Amino acid sequence: MESKRAARGGLRYALHMGLPAGDTQLVQIMDATLVDAARRAGPWLVCRPGCTQCCHGAFAINALDAERLKAGMTALHAADPQKAEEIEQRAKAWIAEHGPEFPGNAATGMLGTSEEDQARFDEFANEAACPALDQVTGLCDVYAWRPMTCRVFGPPVRMGAGDALGCCELCFVGASEEEIAACEMQVPHELEEELVEEAGGTEETVVAYALMRQAPRAPAAALA
Asked: In total, how many domains does the chain have?
């Protein structure tokens, strides 16, 4: 019940927080396509609550993902302030630990775009647990507002037009290429791209920074 109230709160806060109104439609489409892909996949798709392999390792999120997480945290602070504070404390700890090696602006959380920064990101925080993950329950504490990368992880998807199908390495074990292709999850890339531009453009960050209502101060070593 709390999660449902928090999700409704996230919708109320969406426009106030700078989240495009069309994000509601995008999330609804993604939820529906995931259900359909899971139905077609059946036992091939082994994703279950408590399976947290995809919750480890830093990954880039776009401006739309970041605004959705911020809206979710605002809603969660209203519905369950203790849980929201726990998440923020985990995010602060994550930034304190990994900030000195952050491949970008550690004060704002914006990832760098140079070839050097991108190469550094490939090796950055690859084993770190996402601060949104409750490691006791194995559940995501901001599941209703999670980034698109999290929403497509598991079923076969194409990350862009013409890209090959990819899926979680734990899923579709032993399945043929034809069986995998039959379970493809369709992603509305064009709608997402439009909303990303509306939300703030091409700058990217990581989950830990987006979970903070205010940008944390960068660790001293990161500013040296």
From this structure: 1
